[in-house]
Amino acid sequence: MALACWKGVCSCLRPQSSFQDYYTAAGDKQLGEGSFSTVFVATCKSTGLQRAVKKILRSGLTARISADIQNGIDNEFRLTMASDHPNINKLSQRFEDQRYIYLVMELCSGGELCEGIVEADCFTEHQAAILMRQVCSTLSYMHGRGVCHRDIKPEHYLFVRKGPLDSTPLKLIDFGLSCCFQPGEVLREPVGTALYVAPEVLKEAYGSACDLWSFGVIVYLILGGSHPFNGDSAKQVAKSVRKGRFSLDDSCWQVISDDAKDLIHRLLEKDAQTRITAAQAQDHVWLRPGASNSNCADLGPEVIGRLRTFCAESRHARTLCAKEPAGVPTLAELMGSRQC
After folding, report:
1. Is 2.60.120.280 the CATH classification of the domain at 113-334?
2. Structure pTM?
3. Which annotated residues bind ATP (predicted)?
4. Which of 195, 230, 255, 310 has the fewest CB neighbours in a 10 Å radius?
């Protein structure tokens, strides 16, 4: 069965229709690969438009993994179809057969956030502020509608196309770990990505402020070229996150404005209760549209070199996860204490 969605209105396609009835895979244009899925380019037979398609394995899996995947897909489809924001990539169609689930979405051909930065001729703090304004806008929109993403990271922000950094839109993807919440509700499930997870998530008592911590890590990463909380293993990263201590003393931070540093401190506030909110961050002087408080000088080859290394390591890690999913620990396992 397939469900077609156009401009937020859902309608059933003809009974027993399949993905192959409506789309043709575009040769070897594979965009990505996960433990149980691949993302590729397909062309709509009726319109000729190209779309990105996530093909997710549903057969031959354990009952728990299959249920987790199905819940994540249902969650992502429901939340993205209810969203209407220029920086959120909305799913448009869903097809299912006995072996696979196909999710059809807008094709973003410009690459991931950090990859786009690395490919640019130069990168300035001013351009970083423009990009981060888009990221913050998605968080403010989601939180205002009672949705917590819970896996904010640079790999989940894609450029719509190749082009200038300061005029090419970003799109947020992958709502598989997102959830709805009520004001004051305490979330308990330890989910996310170790390098971007907030300390309160590791304590299994958190709220939407966890997304702002992840946002702070991204701002730190693209301005300094490295993560604020590092370690030789995921458990060491989690230990560093729990401490919540980071440094802006490296030489690369000497050219960064005080306004940018102030925002980072407010986002990476260990106490979630006093951490800046998405709405407050949107109004921060560094992110405010038209503000000229960011540096227009090139951040330099050192920062770009670090980002290039990060991109290569990130791609390598995801390749290993795709090939050996059973050996990849969950966030709960990395916490080294309570298990989910």
Report:
1. no
2. 0.87
3. 55
4. 230
Q: In CATH, what class is 2-106?
A: alpha beta
pLDDT at 103 over 80: yes
Closest to 338 measured CA to CA, from 205, 244, 186, 211: 205
Residue 166: active-site member: no
pLDDT of residue 296: 78
- CA atoms of 210 and 216, how far apart (whole Å): 10
Q: Bridge-partner residues for 159, per DSSP? A: 170
Which residues contribute to the annotated binding site for ATP?
55
Please identify which of the residues 74, 151, 232, 249 carries the catalytic annotation. Answer: 151
The dihedral built from the CA positions of residue 16, 19, 23 and 26, taken in this order, carries a sign that is: negative
All structural domains of the chain with their residue ranges: 2-106, 113-334
Q: How far is CA 193 from CA 165, 261, 262, 334, in A?
A: 26, 24, 25, 10
CA distance linking residue 267 with residue 326, whole number of Å: 34
pLDDT 10s digits, 30-56? 887 777 788 999 999 999 999 999 998
The per-residue pLDDT for 292 is: 58
